[in-house]
Amino acid sequence: MQDFLQQTLSGEAPRKRRGETAHLRWQWLYHGILLMEPVVPVKQALVLSAGIHGNETAPVEIMNQLVNALLRGEKPLQQRMLVILGNPSALRTGKRYVRYDINRLFGGRWQQVDDGDEARRVLRLEQALENFWLLGECDETRWHLDMHTAIRGSYHPQFGVMPQNDRPWPPAFLDWLAAAGLEALVFHRAPGGTFTHFSCEHFGAASCTLELGKALPFGENDLSQFSAAQQALAALLFGDPMPATRVKPRHYRVAQQITRLSEHFRLHMTPETLNFTAFPQGTLLAEDGDTRYYVQQAREYVLFPNPGVAAGLRAGLMLIEEGEQTQALPL
């Protein structure tokens, strides 16, 4: 197998499904799912995923360059690693998803939608993660980096979204995210159906959804914008030097979620509204019939505003920055 991405997009299994280099052994487990293990024992395990949304191509291209260098035997491997292209059918069409947003279906939520390719894909990914973690030592370090791009532009072009986690975040993990060039980290306070929440909740992995710029078609990405992330990944995978941290990420936490309840939903933001746009207390954000969403704190920042989601799904998150003085509106 010469090119992991092209092999996945072909929809066909490689003629040779396993192999080795001087540094590692690899095994094609299924379309877009590749196991890579160093020839020497290690205590680190990494799930590296991209392409959960088929129109978010820059992370796919970054990951493919790294993986192909390993497959060609050009680089050593420092981690036991599971590499995942999340939604091959959506990647082929260049769409965010075909029928269902699979990053809302993890943790068994795929059982709540119609049976089909994407629901079955989530089940396969859940099983692949479980098998991967079971293969490792009980004391190994577990990380999951799920790479995305955002639909909209952002005041923080590169940022990370952290799942709900009752355990302290490992300092080495937070240091790596800072070195990767993330300008902000958003901390969830409630469970969700994302891939990273599944890893964190069920397997104790330190996990993060990395948002690297804006969604563009294959071939239109300027990967030089993500040089810090590429260098940090090369350091993690190959043992290359870690890039110097340029800025300390700002920390935000989720204050409230805007949910589309029906076809009457209206989001009071323009299509040009950037992620992390600030709104003052009392601003009407959205309405859906008799339900209205207002800014509750002195100032809240919007993340992922999207009025086009299906009923019952998140149409936006409102954040507060940690360290800012907050005072909620009276009930």
Looking at this protein, list some descriptive labels.
331 residues; alpha/beta; 13-stranded mixed β-sheet; 7 helices; 16 strands; 23% helix; arginine metabolism; EC 3.5.1.96; metal-binding; zinc; Succinylglutamate desuccinylase
Helix count equals 7
The radius of gyration over CA amounts to: 20 Å
Strand order of the largest sheet: 1-2-3-5-4-6-9-7-8-10-16-15-12
Low-confidence stretches: none
Give me the secondary-structure category: alpha/beta
Number of strands: 16
Query: Main beta sheet: strand number and arrangement?
Result: 13 strands, mixed
N→C terminal distance: 60 Å
Shape: globular
Helix percent reads 10-25%
Mean pLDDT over the residues:
92
Strand content: 25-35%
List SSEs in N-to-C order: HEEEEHEHHEEHEHEHEEEEEEE
How would you describe what is shown here?
- The chain has 331 residues and is α/β, with parallel strands linked by helices.
- The chain is 23% helix and 28% strand.
- The chain is built from 7 helices and 16 strands.
- It has helices at residues 4-10, 58-71, 88-93, 117-135, 171-179, 195-203, 227-238, and strands spanning 18-20, 24-30, 33-38, 44-50, 80-85, 141-150, 158-162, 184-187, 206-214, 250-259, 266-267, 278-280, 284-288, 291-294, 299-303, 314-321.
- The strands form 2 sheets. The chain has a 13-stranded mixed beta sheet, sandwiched between helices. A 3-stranded antiparallel beta sheet has the order 11-13-14, with no helix packed on it.
- Strand 1 and strand 2 form a beta hairpin.
- The longest helix is centred in the middle third of the chain and has 19 residues, at 117-135.
- The termini are far apart.
- The model has no long low-confidence stretch (mean pLDDT 92).
- It catalyses: N-succinyl-L-glutamate + H2O = L-glutamate + succinate.
- Pfam families: AstE_AspA_cat (PF24827), AstE_AspA_hybrid (PF04952).
- Pathway: Amino-acid degradation; L-arginine degradation via AST pathway; L-glutamate and succinate from L-arginine: step 5/5.
- InterPro entries: AspA/AstE_fam, AstE_AspA_cat, Aste_AspA_hybrid_dom, SuccinylGlu_desuccinylase.
- Zn(2+) binds at residues 53, 56, 148.
